[in-house]
Amino acid sequence: MFKQINKKSLIGIGALAVVSILPISVVACASNSSKIESALNSIVATNFTISNKNKLASEINLTNLTTELTITRAVIDGVSITYSIKQKSVNDTTGTITLIVTGTIRSLTRTKNLEISGFQTTEQRNANIAIAQEAINPITVLERTQLNQIATTLASSVDISNLDLFVQTPFPLGNGVRFTLSPIFSTSMEQIKTDDTTGTLALRLTASFNGGSVSKVLTVDGFKKI
Q1: 96 in the same domain as 48
Q2: Over the stretch 203-223, which tens digit does the pLDDT of each residue have?
Q3: Which CA distances in Å does 115 have to 39, 45, 110, 129?
Q4: How far apart are the first and last CA of the chain?
Q5: Which uninterrupted H or E stretch holds 133?
Q6: DSSP state of 191
Q7: Are residues 95 and 162 in the same domain?
Q8: pTM for the full model?
Q9: Which class for 171: exposed (0-12), middle (13-18), buried (19 or more C-beta within 10 A)?
Q10: 149, 162 in Cβ contact below 8 A?
Q11: Which end of the chain has less neighbouring CB within 10 Å, N or C?
Q12: Coil, strand or helix: which one is 141?
């Protein structure tokens, strides 16, 4: 015959069984928390690479953050690492930005702030703009190509695809300044701004140097008139 077990003993055993389960989840949570903290502590500013150091910190935003600022390791010991820009942390004077770095395991997250330096400063940008300005100032006329063809072509027939057939973009300078030509569109945004009565074409010349740029509008003449 089976010996009858006291009901109080059963209750006690059940209670012990429940208590023995709780520490498992607590330990797992503590372990994950420790992993996250360890991963976050291992992340320093040098783990991030600035793609273009000619950009101001204020030119980094939610849209381009992960392409302009990349991390060497997105997963550390099972911890997923993400980052975002801390509000009001951008400083163009010092060329710095503060990130909120987040470590995640499942639904458990921890964060830390990390300052990243190395972006172009306002002082550097202004100096680069001055260099670009000095380069563009002497240019008052754009060199025309294929003069015979220009004389028989209406300015209104020029578009982006054939612009370089009629006008030469100034060559880069030895100091690194580069030039680009772009059309100025009419209000309809469908055609380049031209005047077939005077045979002229308006273009925007831009000089750029290490993130700093200036532009001016120049008119190319000599096109066929109507």
Answers
A1: yes
A2: 999 999 999 999 999 999 999
A3: 17, 7, 17, 27
A4: 120
A5: helix 122-136
A6: S
A7: no
A8: 0.78
A9: exposed
A10: no
A11: N
A12: coil
